[in-house]
Amino acid sequence: MVYELAADPSSFKEKKVITIGIVSELTGLSERQIRYYEERKLVFPERTPGGSRRYSFVDVEQLVEIANKIEDGVQTYEIRQEMIKEKKKHKDEAHKKMIQGQLNARFGVRKY
Amino acid sequence: MVYELAADPSSFKEKKVITIGIVSELTGLSERQIRYYEERKLVFPERTPGGSRRYSFVDVEQLVEIANKIEDGVQTYEIRQEMIKEKKKHKDEAHKKMIQGQLNARFGVRKY
DNA sequence: ACGTTTGTGTAAGAAAACCTAACATGATTT
DNA sequence: AAATCATGTTAGGTTTTCTTACACAAACGT
Questions:
Q1: Strand D within 7 A of A73 CB
Q2: Which of A17, A23, A57, A60 to mutate to probe the B interface, most B CBs <10 Å?
Q3: pTM recorded for the entire structure
Q4: H helix or E strand, kind and range, residue B99
Q5: What's the Å distance between residue A50 CA and nucleotide C13 C1'?
Q6: Distance from CA(A37) to C1'(C24), angstroms, rounded
Q7: CA dihedral sign, ordered A37, A41, A42, A46
Q8: Mean pLDDT, 10 residues at a time, over chain A (112 residues)?
Q9: Would the Cβ of A24 be found within 7 angstroms of any atom in strand D?
Q10: Within its chain, how far is the Cα of A40 from the centroid?
Q11: B35-85 pLDDT, tens digit each
């Protein structure tokens, strides 16, 4: 079994630091579109104390994917359903991995 | 001889996308300090069409280093000199590497 | 020792960027 | 036919950023 590297939580790619104007520039989407996709629960920017949205590079990448799907005629609602399924899958995998880890800890091959 | 991988130019780490407010938050430096270090030619943010500064994660890292040196009593002027020397060194290395490449191309061991 | 540079804070006024809410509209769905 | 979707646009308001200027203690150079 192959273990992936744990995603570095301090990773730059996930840091929410980009303003909507720049996101618009990077993606080619209008600010209206970007805010609308948030309304449809497809992206989740953070906010500054003052209330301005801040996105990560991962968000930017996802926005591009979303835009592509929409261009292919997929509705935001469907995209959202896909996302939920994806998330569930990942959760299940994580769960399985955890169980596996516990089994290994008790009965598995010792690595030391 | 070991060749490094060419730095991905589309790398997010080098993309200038962060506003000064966020940089201030990330580094703990005041906006005044950040602008001053630019005045002393230690950082080089890009500008939006409207004139707002945009920094990269690399810039952020460098700002932290700069701040540390200053805290150690090093003056911006000296820091700048170090930077210039560093840059020259890299340029020389690149130059040497290029020459080496040309020599290899003519007289070196063929790789095919 | 004295004048100068350094590094930083703060204030003022203006411009840029962002926010929400609302109305409009053509295309799809239902 | 009515409702929903996806997007544009406008309006008024707030936040963020910009430059310039003045202040001042600490460090530096001569």
A1: no
A2: A17
A3: 0.85
A4: helix B76-107
A5: 21
A6: 20
A7: positive
A8: 56 97 98 98 98 98 98 97 91 82 70 53
A9: no
A10: 15
A11: 999 999 999 999 999 999 999 999 999 999 999 999 999 999 999 999 999
